[in-house]
UniProtKB/TrEMBL annotation:
<dbReference type="InterPro" id="IPR036204">
    <property type="entry name" value="ATP_synth_f6_sf_mt"/>
</dbReference>
<keyword id="KW-0813">Transport</keyword>
<keyword id="KW-0138">CF(0)</keyword>
<keyword id="KW-0375">Hydrogen ion transport</keyword>
<dbReference type="GO" id="GO:0015078">
    <property type="term" value="F:proton transmembrane transporter activity"/>
</dbReference>
<keyword id="KW-0406">Ion transport</keyword>
<keyword id="KW-0999">Mitochondrion inner membrane</keyword>
<comment type="similarity">
    <text>Belongs to the eukaryotic ATPase subunit F6 family.</text>
</comment>
<dbReference type="GO" id="GO:0005743">
    <property type="term" value="C:mitochondrial inner membrane"/>
</dbReference>
<keyword id="KW-0472">Membrane</keyword>
<keyword id="KW-0496">Mitochondrion</keyword>
<dbReference type="GO" id="GO:0015986">
    <property type="term" value="P:proton motive force-driven ATP synthesis"/>
</dbReference>
<dbReference type="InterPro" id="IPR008387">
    <property type="entry name" value="ATP_synth_f6_mt"/>
</dbReference>
<protein>
    <submittedName>
        <fullName>ATP synthase-coupling factor 6, mitochondrial</fullName>
    </submittedName>
</protein>
<dbReference type="GO" id="GO:0045259">
    <property type="term" value="C:proton-transporting ATP synthase complex"/>
</dbReference>
<dbReference type="Pfam" id="PF05511">
    <property type="entry name" value="ATP-synt_F6"/>
</dbReference>
Length: 140
C-alpha cells in the first residue's frame, strides 16, 4: 500500500520538475528566456538613463543628493580633506623609481632544509625554556 502511494506521488512530482512546462518549451524553441530578456531590457534602460544623466547618479532625488553631500563633507572633516569634492576622488600616488628592489630569489633545497632545521632547533629550545620555567613556578 505504501509503495503504491509513493509510485503515485512520484509521477506528478516528476512532471513538475520536468521541462515540459509551456514556458520552458517556448524558451527552448526560440532560445529566448523571459527572465533573461527582462534583465537585458533593464540593463539597456539603465544605459540610456546613465548617458542622459551625463555621468551623474541615475534616478536620484534631491534627498539622496543632499545625503551624499552631507556624507562627503563628513568624510572630508573626519580625514582632514580640504573639500568634499576631494573626498569623492581617488588619491594620486607618486612612486620613486630610484628605489632598488631585490628580485625574487628562489631557495635551493639545501637552503630550505637548513632553515627548517634552524627553525626546529629554535622551537625545541623555546619549548625546553618554557618547560623549565613551568617547573620552576610549580616548585614554589
Amino acid at each position: 500500500m505504501f509503495r503504491q502511494a509513493l509510485t503515485v506521488a512520484r509521477v506528478p512530482t516528476a512532471r513538475l520538475l520536468s521541462t515540459s512546462s509551456p514556458m520552458a518549451q517556448v524558451a527552448q524553441k526560440t532560445g529566448d528566456d523571459p527572465v533573461q530578456q527582462l534583465f537585458v531590457q533593464k540593463i539597456r534602460e539603465y544605459g540610456q538613463k546613465s548617458k542622459a544623466a551625463g555621468g551623474k547618479m541615475v534616478d536620484v532625488t534631491g534627498e539622496v543628493e543632499k545625503s551624499l553631500r552631507d556624507e562627503l563633507s563628513r568624510v572630508a572633516r573626519t580625514f582632514g580633506i580640504a573639500s568634499a569634492q576631494e573626498a569623492s576622488s581617488l588619491p594620486a600616488f607618486k612612486f620613486d623609481s630610484t628605489v632598488d628592489v631585490e628580485p625574487f630569489r628562489a631557495f635551493t633545497d639545501d637552503e630550505i632544509q637548513k632553515r627548517d632545521a634552524e627553525d626546529q632547533k629554535a622551537a625545541k629550545a623555546a619549548a625546553a625554556k618554557a618547560s623549565a620555567k613551568a617547573k620552576a613556578l610549580s616548585a614554589h
